């Protein structure tokens, strides 16, 4: 697996590049080659979780999803899959039927923050980063063919990296922006800090203020956060699910919203 990206570079892309087919692509919201949102006409939400190593939300998140019969999507780095203490977590989530996908092997920053078109890595590095992540997943019986959706590292990418991922048979997806749920990692000493109550209120306000609400949303919650943040948003996940179900939303697997054939 570690040599695969290099070997692929030696061959013309036409000989090995994967052809991805996304069902109903016109209903998706696409940004720079990645899918940020599903069908806006359907009151469906998919919960997505990411981690490069923090695991403090595991028990709460797993129990909450099980309580409501919801299948989440968990995107972990190779660093995460390699940690011995994460092995039972991965096995537990897999046993529960959740989607397990990649989030970059080493959690590399692919593009410059000040200019997403400015690459910090080349094509071979992106190939290797992705395929090495899948190599770690394979130890748990998770194959690319069954898990072609990937959230890029730092939820940040550009059209080139999305196209390179496609060549490997991987479709980049990202969280749906607007609610600020992705700020649940911020710590009290940071200028961009948002409390769990602020995040919760903003999600519901966004839903109420937009005509299509949270339809088709990929709602991000971090799987774990810095210990300096004691106000954990995943502790509000139960409340959020109850309220959004009351508003008529159905929580569905990400593979129901985004169907990929490769």
Q: What's the structural blueprint in terms of helices and strands?
A:
Blueprint: H1 4-9, H2 13-16, E1 21-22, E2 29-31, E3 34-37, E4 44-51, H3 58-68, E5 73-76, H4 78-82, H5 87-95, E6 99-102, E7 111-112, E8 115-119, H6 123-138, E9 149-150, H7 159-167, E10 171-172, H8 196-209, E11 217-222, H9 237-246, E12 250-251, H10 254-257, E13 260-261
Parallel strand pairs: 4-5, 4-11, 4-12, 5-6, 9-10
Antiparallel strand pairs: 1-13, 2-3, 7-8
Your description of this structure?
The protein has 262 residues and is an alpha/beta fold. Helix content is 34%, strand content 18%. It has helices spanning 4-9, 13-16, 58-68, 78-82, 87-95, 123-138, 159-167, 196-209, 237-246, 254-257, and strands spanning 21-22, 29-31, 34-37, 44-51, 73-76, 99-102, 111-112, 115-119, 149-150, 171-172, 217-222, 250-251, 260-261. Strands 4, 5, 6, 11 and 12 form a 5-stranded parallel sheet that branches. Strand 9 (149-150), helix 7 and strand 10 form a beta-alpha-beta unit. The protein is globular. The relative contact order is 0.22. The mean pLDDT is 94.
């Amino acid at each position: 697996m570690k040599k695969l990206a290099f070997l692929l570079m030696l061959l013309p892309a036409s000989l090995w590049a994967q052809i991805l087919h996304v069902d109903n692509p016109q209903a998706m919201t696409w940004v720079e080659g990645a899918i940020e949102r599903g069908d806006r006409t359907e009151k469906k939400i998919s919960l997505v979780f990411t981690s490069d190593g923090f695991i403090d939300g595991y028990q709460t998140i797993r129990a909450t999803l099980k309580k409501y019969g919801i299948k989440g999507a968990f995107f972990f780095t190779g660093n995460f899959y390699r940690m011995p203490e994460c092995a039972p977590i991965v096995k537990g989530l897999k046993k529960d039927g959740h989607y397990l996908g990649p989030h970059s092997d080493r959690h590399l920053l692919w593009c410059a923050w000040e200019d997403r078109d400015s690459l910090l890595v080349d094509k071979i590095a992106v190939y290797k980063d992705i395929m090495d992540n899948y190599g770690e997943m394979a130890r748990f019986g998770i194959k690319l063919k069954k898990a072609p959706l990937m959230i890029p590292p730092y939820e940040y990418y550009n059209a080139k990296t999305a196209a390179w991922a496609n060549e490997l048979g991987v479709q980049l997806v990202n969280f749906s922006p607007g609610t600020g749920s992705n700020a649940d990692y911020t710590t009290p000493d940071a200028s961009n800090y948002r409390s769990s109550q602020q995040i919760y209120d903003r999600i519901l306000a966004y839903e109420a203020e937009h005509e299509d609400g949270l339809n088709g949303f990929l709602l991000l919650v971090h799987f774990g956060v810095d210990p300096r943040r004691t106000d954990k948003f995943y502790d509000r996940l139960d409340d959020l699910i109850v309220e959004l179900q009351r508003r008529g939303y159905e929580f569905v697997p990400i593979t129901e919203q985004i169907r990929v054939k490769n």
